[in-house]
Amino acid sequence: MSTTLDSPTDTQVPVLRNYVGGAWTAPSGDADDVVNPATGETVARVPLSSAKEVEAAVAAARAALPEWRRTPATTRARFVARYLRGIEDRLDEVAAAIAKDVGKTLAEGRGEVIRSMEGLEAAGAIPMLLRGQLAENVASGVDAEMIRQPVGVCGVISPFNFPLFSTIAQQSAALVCGNTIVWKPSEQTPLTQQVLFDIIDGIGIPAGVWNLVNGGREVVEAMLESPGIDAISFVGSAKVAQLVHSRGTANGKRVQALGGAKNYMVVMPDAVIDQTANQIAQSGFGTSGQRCMAGSVIVTVGGVWSELKDDLVARGAEITLGDPMQDGVDIGPVVSLAAAERIQAGIQRALDDGATLVLDGRDPGVEGNGFFVGPTILENVDAESDLAREELFGPVLAVVEVGSLDEAIELVNGSPYGNGTSLFTESGAAARHFRAEVEVGMVGINIGVAAPVALFPFTGWKKSMFGDIPIQAEASVDFFTRKKSVTTRYFS
Ligand code: NAD
Fold first, then answer.
1. Of 314, 315, 330, nearest in space to 366 by CA
2. Of 184, 272, 295, 447, which residue is most buried, by most CB within 10 angstroms?
3. Hey, how many other C-beta atoms are within 10 angstroms of the C-beta on 325?
């Protein structure tokens, strides 16, 4: 619920703060309730910062830029390494904040922290990637060189589902490349950043290098309009990603905007059934289906659905839903009441379109006021229906049966999204054909969540990424540096 910070609905809950210019700041104005999705309780209030607060953070980041960009890259990398150690020391606390924010289990929260640490570790190699190039004697007595310099002040905008992981590779690369940052987390999951900035506060990084501005759409719009921001790294839904990319680039900014997804998992008749069912269940139902790389459509080739069905349904039915902080719980709630209602409506629409339920999670029977939807599987799904084509972002798997691998590839390539896709087969020839022909940026062979490790770029295609330069690995260095070419001659 949105009210003002001056007239709180409940004085018992903490009001979250921004972190600007090396200090915690307390914004005034509008605020939203932060709701624990497992209980429906308001646990904090998040400020909906204004354009004025964005400008204060941008001014702090600009003021810090000249000294930070002149700081040796290895020293900058050392601050990121200190942050990594701070996160490692407080791993359980960060994992618990993620779990409370998103509704993930503690194990999933820990998993997110550990994947994020890999991103921070990879950033340690960035100083080497900042080396330029030099060619001697490109003309008589003339040398040519290319050097890399930071882009400037970078705005980073996160989605709700990975409060830490979704932008860690970008932020660590931006810093080591010599940029300063203004970070806006999702207003739905802002608790994690309070712990993260407590860690940042303790690593001695110069004031103004790393800033936090809480809020919603107004903050994003102010960042897109601010002449003090040089680049924007956004992760979120396709609709907002497209909007951020077009408005940001129109304002002369460098923009990478990662969008939503609809990921197809293709199963061949020679797939190893039990392992395939396990991978598909983890991919589709883990984190309640709220991962941009979660598989959501199972495309079965040549009648293999009849072999896979019982195993997959049994795995889905065995999943324990409940309070994600409790031991023995496999998946928690979805992030909000609105998300639960949207997922329920999507299932109903699929039924109206002629699909049939083989596992029904609509009423998972979890006591209390949390926002739970259980694992759900629908068969006889029309390949052109919304369920097969549009992102639902819940623990729902749609089954579409086709006759051949080429038919499956045609289906995958017809999607407006191109984030991830998987093929389950023991045939090297089928895998090679799939890898070559499929129009999707990240491919898994017998891997349910084909997200590349931090050493490789994260390469969504089509509506899953707007902008030319992806995140992670060398790509991050390309995004967060500008190339300068210098041609030199001396007369004496
Ligand atoms: P979202 O697009 O609703 O929000 C993302 C960010 O944009 C938030 O910080 C939010 O405050 C802001 N925002 C929302 N509406 C806006 C508007 N109209 N104008 C300006 N800013 C706006 O996404 P979400 O629901 O928080 O996250 C889930 C989505 O993110 C899913 O679509 C998922 O697939 C996608 N995602 C993609 C990746 C990827 O790597 N491609 C990774 C994680 C999540």
1. 330
2. 295
3. 16
12 falls in which pLDDT band (50, 70, 90)?
confident
Helix (H, G, I), strand (E, B) or coil at 87: helix
pLDDT at 6: 58
| Cβ atoms < 10 Å from Cβ of 490 | 7
- For the chain, what is the mean pLDDT? 96
Do residues 280 and 304 make contact, with C-beta atoms less than 8 angstroms apart?
no
Distance between CA atoms of 97 and 91, rounded to whole angstroms? 10
User: Which ligand 1 atom sits nearest the alpha carbon of residue 162?
Assistant: 43
What is the per-residue pLDDT across 328-361, written as a single tens digit (0 to 9) for each? Answer: 999 999 999 999 999 999 999 999 999 999 999 9
From atom 16 of ligand 1, which residue's Cα is the shortest distance away?
A: 217
DSSP-derived letter for residue 467 is: S
Phi and psi at residue 25, to the nearest 5° = -125, 150
Distance from the CA of 432 to the center of ligand 1, in angstroms?
A: 33
CA of 157 to the centre of ligand 1 (A): 8
Please check whether residue 390 is in contact with residue 417, taking contact to mean a CB–CB distance below 8 angstroms: no
Structural domains in the chain, CATH included, are 2-259+465-487 (3.40.605.10), 263-445 (3.40.309.10)
For ligand 1, which residues put their CB under 6 angstroms from it? 157-162, 166, 184, 186-187, 216-217, 220, 235-237, 240, 243, 258-261, 292, 391, 393, 419, 460, 464
- The pTM of the whole model exceeds 0.70: yes
Distance CA 311, CA 32 (A): 43
Q: 459 is written with which tokens?
A: 């390469």
Bridge partners for 254 per DSSP: 231
Kindly give the pairing relationship between strand 30-35 and strand 23-25.
unpaired
Residues shown for the chain: 492
Q: Is 292 a catalytic residue?
A: yes
Maximum Cα–Cα distance across the chain: 85
Residue 90, both tokens = 């407080």
Give residues with Cβ within 8 angstroms of 116, minimum separation 6: 87, 164, 165, 168
Choose which residue among 115, 220, 288, 440 to substitute to test ligand 1 binding: the one with the highest number of ligand atoms within 8 A of its C-beta: 220
b/e map of 63-102 (b: 16 or more CB within 10 Å)? bbbeebbeeebeebbbbbbbbbebbeebeeebbbbbbbbb
Question: Residue 425: CB partners within 8 Å, gap ≥ 6?
Answer: 267, 268, 270, 271, 431, 434, 445, 446
Show the CA angle centred on residue 112, arms to residues 164 and 152, nearest 5°: 30
In this predicted structure, the answer to whether residue 9 has a pLDDT above a threshold of 80 is: no
Distance 407 CA to ligand 1 centre (A): 32
Which amino acid belongs to residue 246? S
Can you give the three-state secondary structure of 328-369, one letter per residue? CCCECCCCCHHHHHHHHHHHHHHHHCCCEEEECCCCCCCCCC
**Residue 131 carries which DSSP code?**
-
